[in-house]
């Protein structure tokens, strides 16, 4: 297994462990950390394995971070609508 896929799998394990731990801020600080580390991993996977594998990794990461992505989508659509 390549380093990029190993990092993506490690990200998934760490994200699940972080989600199981209690948090006072509803996990938003951890979500920002996971987004900040997940984006470069997806780019690295895309660089090593191509866009289709990167899309699969992105979908797996998005399934873990579904609530922050929903709120981000709501914010973007609200700003575009005015």
Automatic annotation (TrEMBL):
A Pfam match: DUF2484
Top-level taxonomic group: Bacteria
InterPro entries: DUF2484
The protein, known as: Uncharacterized protein DUF2484
Transmembrane segments: 52-73
Species of the source: Salipiger aestuarii
Keywords attached to this entry: Membrane, Transmembrane, Transmembrane helix
């Amino acid at each position: 297994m390549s380093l990029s896929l190993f990092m993506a799998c490690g990200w998934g394990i760490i994200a699940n462990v972080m989600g199981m731990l209690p948090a006072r801020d509803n996990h938003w600080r951890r979500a920002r950390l996971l987004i900040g580390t997940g984006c470069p991993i997806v780019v690295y996977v895309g660089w090593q394995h191509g866009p289709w594998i990167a899309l699969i990794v992105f979908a797996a990461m998005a399934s873990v971070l579904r609530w922050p992505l929903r709120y981000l989508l709501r914010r973007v659509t609200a700003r575009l609508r005015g």
